[in-house]
C-alpha cells in the first residue's frame, strides 16, 4: 500500500499499521484515541491519553532513533516543524515508513490532514471526535481583543504568521498582532513587546503552559500593568481530540484576564 504524506513523500505501508511510533504529542493522542493499542512508542512529551503506557523514545527534536528502530514499527508519525529531516531520512533508510504531517496553519488544515492520515493510513471510518471538533470550530467570532502570544522566554518567542494557535485564537475573536510578521515565530525583545502595549496596539497577553511553562510567577512579571490570561498549551496548539473541549476551555480562560502587578 503506497500512500503520500503531507509533504508529497511516499509512505510504503505493508498493510494497516499495527505498531506505530509517534514523535508528535497531538498525533499520539489522535491515533491512540481512534485506534486503541496502535501506539507502541512515543516521546517523553506525549502526555495524552493520560493512561498511555508505551516505550518512550526521547524528545521530538532529538528522538532516540536507535530505540525507535528497535521497536520495529510499521509506521512512524512525524511533523515537518517538530522533527528533524535527518532523523526522518535515517528511519526511511532503515526501511521504516514515515508519515510526515505538515505544520498546519489553520484548524481546517489540521483536521483535514488528520482525516487523511486516519482514513487512508489506518483505513478507519471518520472518528466521531473529528466530526465534533469540526462542528465546534466551524464559526469565527468578531474581533474583540488584540493579543501577544509568547511561547518561549529566554529569548522571547511569540506566535507569528500562519500558525495553528493563531488561527484558534482568531476563531475566538482574538487577533494576533504579530500575524503579519514575516516569520512564523518572531523573536521580539521584551521592550518591543511592552511598547506594543504602551501604544495600545495590544491589550492582552496570552500565556500558554507549553512549550514554555508560563505561570502566575513566570511571564506576567515581565509586563507589569498588562492584562494577561494563562491558557492550556494543549488546548491552544494541539490538533486532535483535544479540540472537542478546547473552544469551551479557552473561551472560559480568555473571559477572566488578570493584570500583572
UniProtKB/TrEMBL annotation:
Keyword Ribonucleoprotein appears in the UniProt entry: no
UniProt cross-references to InterPro entries, sorted A to Z: ABC_Transporter_SBP, ABC_transptr_periplasmic_BD, Vit_B12_bind_prot
Annotated ranges, domain Fe/B12 periplasmic-binding: 35-195
SUPFAM superfamilies, alphabetized: Helical backbone' metal receptor (SSF53807)
The keyword DNA repair is annotated on this UniProt entry: no
Highest taxon of source: Bacteria
Keyword set, alphabetical order: Receptor, Signal
Sequence similarity: Belongs to the bacterial solute-binding protein 8 family.
Protein name, entry field: Helical backbone metal receptor
Amino acid at each position: 500500500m503506497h500512500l503520500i504524506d503531507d509533504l508529497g513523500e511516499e509512505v510504503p505501508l505493508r498493510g494497516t499499521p499495527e505498531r506505530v511510533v509517534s514523535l508528535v504529542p497531538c498525533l499520539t493522542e489522535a491515533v491512540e484515541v481512534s485506534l486503541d493499542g496502535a501506539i507502541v512508542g512515543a516521546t517523553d512529551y506525549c502526555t495524552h491519553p493520560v493512561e498511555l503506557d508505551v516505550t518512550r523514545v526521547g524528545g521530538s527534536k532529538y528522538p532516540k532513533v536507535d530505540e525507535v528502530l528497535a521497536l520495529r514499527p510499521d509506521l512512524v508519525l512525524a511533523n515537518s516543524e517538530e522533527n528533524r529531516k535527518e532523523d526522518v531520512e535515517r528511519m526511511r533508510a532503515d526501511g521504516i515508513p514515515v508519515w510526515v504531517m505538515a505544520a498546519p496553519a489553520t484548524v481546517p488544515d489540521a483536521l483535514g490532514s488528520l482525516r487523511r492520515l486516519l482514513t487512508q493510513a489506518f483505513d478507519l471510518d471518520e472518528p466521531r471526535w473529528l466530526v465534533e471538533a469540526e462542528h465546534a470550530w466551524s464559526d469565527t467570532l468578531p474581533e474583540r481583543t488584540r493579543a501577544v502570544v509568547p511561547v518561549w522566554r529566554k529569548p522571547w518567542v511569540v506566535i507569528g504568521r500562519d500558525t495553528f494557535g493563531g488561527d484558534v485564537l482568531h476563531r475566538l475573536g482574538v487577533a494576533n498582532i504579530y500575524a503579519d510578521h514575516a516569520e512564523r515565530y518572531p523573536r521580539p525583545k521584551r521592550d518591543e513587546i511592552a511598547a506594543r502595549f504602551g501604544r495600545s496596539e495590544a491589550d492582552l497577553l496570552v500565556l500558554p503552559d507549553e512549550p514554555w511553562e508560563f505561570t502566575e510567577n513566570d511571564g506576567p512579571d515581565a509586563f507589569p500593568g498588562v492584562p494577561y490570561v494563562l491558557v492550556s498549551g494543549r488546548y491552544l496548539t494541539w490538533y486532535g481530540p483535544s479540540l472537542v473541549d478546547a473552544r469551551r476551555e479557552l473561551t472560559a480562560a480568555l473571559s477572566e484576564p488578570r493584570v500583572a502587578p
